[in-house]
Amino acid sequence: MKFIHFTILVIIHIESVILSTKSQIQPRSVIKVYYEPLCPTTIRFFKNSLKKFYNRINEFQPYVKQILFYPGGKTRYYLNSNSISFKCLHGNLECIGNKFHACAMKLLTLDVYKSYIFCYMKNIFSKKFSRDTYAVTKNCSNTLNFDYNLIEKCVKNNGDKLLLEILKERDTLPKRIFYVPWVTINDHFNLTRLRKIEKDMTGYICSSDNTKTLPICKNIK
After folding, report:
1. 17 lies in a domain?
2. Could you give the strand order of the β-sheet that contains 182-185, starting from the edge strand earlier in sequence?
3. Looking at the domain assignment, is residue 124 inside a domain?
4. What is the mean pLDDT of residues 201-217?
5. Which of 103, 145, 152, 189 is the most buried (most CB within 10 A)?
6. Is 20 part of any domain?
7. How many CB atoms lie within 10 A of CB 177?
8. pTM of the entire structure?
9. What pLDDT was estimated at residue 23?
10. How many domains, in total, are found in the chain?
């Protein structure tokens, strides 16, 4: 029994070391955020922790290569003959939001697409827009100077197809998404890390041994 107990402890220690190594921010790391556009925890994350980090992402070079966003984190899809249907976490309004985001990802430049998402998250729950993806996207298009009609046309004609492509890519992840926002670093996910990132992404990235010497991290405890 003592030998078995010792073996279990060794295995736990090895797994802990491996996890710790994977959790370190390596040079040119890629961060991916899987989300749902009408999820309160997602919106809170985008408006606070993620926004604070993203605004200063250039200061994390050369460790953070880029950050990518993927709508439809927990959305399910169903294929029947020539039809595609979706079941979204917060109902059909969220499915519409996912399609808008999928079209924005396809049609806008990367920087404008990301700015659109932050604009969307900032406004979608406001009294003025009240979860109306059409209205909030039109408002963001005026602010960011992109063609709203082009996005709306895409949603109508290609929204299902583009969202399905994103979800199929999502399904290649080594671990099934059970919570949003879902954040991976170099395609690796860890729940304990996610909790820290949700609270303070900048602080978490700065806690890595590899990034502590960056100027932005020197005054962060």
Report:
1. no
2. 64-71, 29-35, 182-185
3. yes
4. 93
5. 103
6. no
7. 19
8. 0.88
9. 54
10. 1
Tokens of 90: 């917060």
Tell me, yes or no, whether 64 lies in a domain.
yes
**pLDDT at residue 4 is higher than 80:** no
- Domain extent for 165: 37-217
Beta partners for residue 87, in sequence order: 76
Is the per-residue pLDDT at 30 higher than 60?
Answer: yes
For residue range 142-170, list pLDDT tens digits in order: 999 999 999 999 999 999 999 999 999 99
- How is residue 153 written in tokens? 């046309």
Q: Where are the alpha helices (DSSP H) in the chain?
A: 2-23, 40-45, 51-54, 92-107, 110-123, 133-144, 148-170, 191-206
pLDDT at 221: 63
Query: Phi then psi for 34, rounded to 5 degrees?
Result: -100, 130
Q: Which of 102, 114, 51, 44 is nearest to 73 (CA)?
A: 102
Q: What DSSP string runs through 116-144?
A: HHHHHHHHTTSTTTTT-HHHHHHHHHHHH
